[in-house]
Amino acid sequence: MLKPSTETLPDKVRKSVSLQVPKRAGENALRLLSQMKLVDQKARIRLEGETLLLPLLRKPSSDEATRIQTQIGPALVSQDGFEPKTKTVQSLEEALQDQLPPSMVASLPASFDIVGDIAVVEFPPELSRHERVVAEGILKVHKNLKAVFARAGPVSGVDRVRPLRHLVGDMRTTTVHREFGCRYKVDLSKAYFSPRLSTEHQRVAESVGPGEFVVDMFAGVGPFSILIAKRRGDVVVHALDSNPEAVRLLEENVRLNNQEGKVTVWAGDARAIVERDLRGKASRVIMNLPSAAKEFVDVACKALHTDGGVLHYYTFADGLDYKEKALGELDRALGSCSWKLRTKIGVRPVRGVGPMHWQVVVDARVVPMG
Questions:
Q1: Which of 126, 148, 136, 124 is nearest to 96 (CA)?
Q2: pLDDT tens sequence across 196-211
Q3: Using CA of residue 120, residue 125, residue 126, residue 129, what is the dihedral sign?
Q4: CATH number at residue 263
Q5: Is the terminal CB of the chain with fewer CB neighbours within 10 Å at N or C?
Q6: Residue 353: CB partners within 8 Å, gap ≥ 6?
Q7: Is 146 in the same domain as 36?
Q8: Is residue 4 over pLDDT 50?
Q9: Which of 20, 54, 82 is the last residue of a domain?
Q10: What pTM did the predictor assign?
Q11: Structural domain count of the chain
């Protein structure tokens, strides 16, 4: 027989009928009670020593009690205090459905950048008055995030920095971002970094062969250089950047990922560094400066072996013929410095940056003319 308990336990949240069973019988008991539709799904199960307290919606009937006793053994019915289960919010729309008008919920950003434990959001104009509410919803959905910033303008300047506006959470722009087994110290207010390029970092790293000499002309905090060095044991990587803050973070990230001796960091203008120290040494050059890469094609060619090598050339292009535009831009830039495209390895969009507007990469083997 099921025996009622007269013990009164502290009322944590609310009293509920419970079934006390030995811990070892908990799985079978839960399965049986679920079949009988007796489990209170809104309350948390309690464990006290070797006894499980299972919250019930009601007291079992006589027939139900007999079935429980037959299949589980002696059990104790009591009145106990149970904490409610915390409802998990699955989406930003769910988190904000009671705080924003339906039209505003429909305008919520479909995606945003997550760098380490910081979210960076681009808000449409119609949400400008609701940015803080949306930011608080983001923190509610993504428990690992500690701060939310709004984009306050485009990436600009020689240091490639995007202005940000703090909304909620920690007042800091530094974080550690993890990507493909690497860790990168990032300061979003002082150096360029985009998590949307993670697949591109991996793709380029996997294309590098044994023994290569790689020049990363606009390295930033090092996501191309460090991943290549870590994935390919016998490569030599030279990482260049003109932004002193990016260089400082790059040097720290080389140490953070134990790549000292494999990644050489250079601070300053790529044109001067290549001319002075890296001329004719590279088998592969990475040119991730889409706003101005065409101005440095002659520098990249000087860095390559005298019989040529591989370029990863990044640019912006728009329209349905964006691939042809990107390839044509590189071809013209090569011609102006007496080099030519020998083999088109591939042309592909890296990410969308606007309606019918993409960041594009051209992978090509290039050689001197003649």
A1: 136
A2: 999 999 999 999 999 9
A3: positive
A4: 3.40.50.150
A5: C
A6: 316, 359
A7: no
A8: no
A9: 82
A10: 0.75
A11: 3
Amino acid at 313: Y
Q: What is the secondary structure of 72-94 as a DSSP string?
A: H-S-EEEEEEEPBPPPPP--HHH
Is the domain of 168 the same as that of 198?
no
Confirm whether 181 is domain-assigned.
no
- State the CB neighbour count (10 A cutoff) for residue 94: 15
Span between the terminal Cα atoms of the chain, in Å: 98
Domain boundaries, position 54? 3-82
- Looking at residue 11, its pLDDT comes to 41
Residue 87 within any structural domain of the chain = no
Q: Is 278 within a domain?
A: yes
211 lies in a domain?
yes
Domain match, 73 and 151 both: no
Q: Packing angle between helix 244-256 and helix 223-231, nearest 10 degrees?
A: 20
What is the C-alpha separation between 4 and 266, in angstroms, rounded?
77
> pLDDT tens digit string along 97-146?
778 877 788 888 878 999 999 999 999 888 889 999 999 999 998 999 99
